[in-house]
């Protein structure tokens, strides 16, 4: 099975437990990470790719209630939960659209900013997805990427590895009742480019003025770039 199909099926299978596991496995930090990333965006028309159940789109809407946000994902089951969440929270400025991050259906220079949270690690071709984000934002617009990373400090790194490789897959499997996804999570983080490598890919995708912020001992990183 191609990576794309595998990923789509995997998220469809864990969709109903996704939010709970995010909260538990990040020890409640995920909301702070998403808010920090959402804060880096300009206001206006914003695209959230790999939006999943829409948590980062919700944070963007809280940061600026004047913004209009498109929450895009290729997995129908995740998007359904996103639509339900928006309805339950009575949010009026988020619109859910099924879309492939590597082949966006939007015209060039449509958005003021684009964001991806914990999604870029899952796409088949990172550069293609970043190039698509850059293509659909206006000149001067901003791309924000929130993704897991590895702590620089060797002691913290070994504690993190132990939690991530040994404890997290067990809790994830117990709650989601599936073994694959929460073993895939640590291996995909380990295989993800290092910060300096990721900055290079952002440059190659057409962005400039690239910066990054390490949060929670470097467990996650927020990258920003301008078109
Ligand atoms: C780990 S979840 C992140 C969801 C959300 N952004 C968050 O912060 O919780 C990754 C999401 O990326 C989506 N995804 C992966 N590859 C994709 C692609 N090529 N196009 C669109 N969505 C994709 C999956 O369906 C899944 O919903």
Automatic annotation (TrEMBL):
Its EC number is 2.1.1.163. One of its GO terms (biological process) is menaquinone biosynthetic process. The chain crosses the membrane at residues 210-226. It comes from the Archaea. InterPro entries: SAM-dependent_MTases_sf, UbiE/COQ5_MeTrFase, UbiE/COQ5_MeTrFase_CS. CDD domains: AdoMet_MTases (cd02440). Pathway: Quinol/quinone metabolism; menaquinone biosynthesis; menaquinol from 1,4-dihydroxy-2-naphthoate: step 2/2. It is an enzyme of class 2 (transferase). It catalyses: a 2-demethylmenaquinol + S-adenosyl-L-methionine = a menaquinol + S-adenosyl-L-homocysteine + H(+). S-adenosyl-L-methionine binds at residues 53, 73, 100-101. GO terms for molecular function: demethylmenaquinone methyltransferase activity. Keywords: Membrane, Menaquinone biosynthesis, Methyltransferase, S-adenosyl-L-methionine, Transferase, Transmembrane, Transmembrane helix, Ubiquinone. Belongs to the class I-like SAM-binding methyltransferase superfamily. MenG/UbiE family. Methyltransferase required for the conversion of demethylmenaquinol (DMKH2) to menaquinol (MKH2). NCBIfam families: MenG_MenH_UbiE (TIGR01934), PRK00216.1-5 (NF001244). This is Demethylmenaquinone methyltransferase. It comes from Candidatus Methanoperedens nitratireducens.
């Amino acid at each position: 099975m191609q990576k794309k199909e595998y990923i789509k099926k995997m998220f469809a299978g864990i969709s109903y437990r996704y939010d709970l596991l995010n909260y538990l496995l990040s020890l409640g930090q995920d909301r702070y990470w998403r808010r920090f990333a959402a804060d880096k965006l300009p206001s206006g028309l914003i695209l959230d790719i790999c939006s999943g159940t829409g948590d980062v789109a919700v944070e963007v809407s809280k940061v600026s209630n004047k913004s209009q946000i498109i929450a895009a994902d290729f997995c129908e089951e995740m998007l359904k939960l996103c639509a339900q969440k928006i309805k339950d929270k009575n949010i009026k400025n988020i619109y859910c659209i099924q879309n492939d991050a590597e082949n966006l259906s939007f015209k060039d220079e449509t958005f003021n900013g684009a964001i991806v949270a914990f999604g870029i690690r899952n796409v088949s071709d990172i550069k293609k997805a970043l190039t698509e984000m850059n293509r659909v934002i206006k000149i001067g617009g901003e791309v924000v990427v929130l993704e897991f990373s590895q702590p620089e400090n060797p002691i913290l790194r070994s504690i993190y590895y132990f939690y991530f490789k040994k404890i997290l897959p067990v809790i994830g499997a117990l709650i989601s009742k599936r073994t694959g996804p929460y073993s895939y999570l640590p291996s995909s983080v380990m295989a993800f480019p290092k910060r300096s490598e990721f900055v290079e890919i952002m440059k190659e995708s057409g962005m400039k003025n690239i910066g990054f912020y390490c949060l929670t001992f470097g467990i996650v990183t927020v990258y920003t770039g301008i078109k």
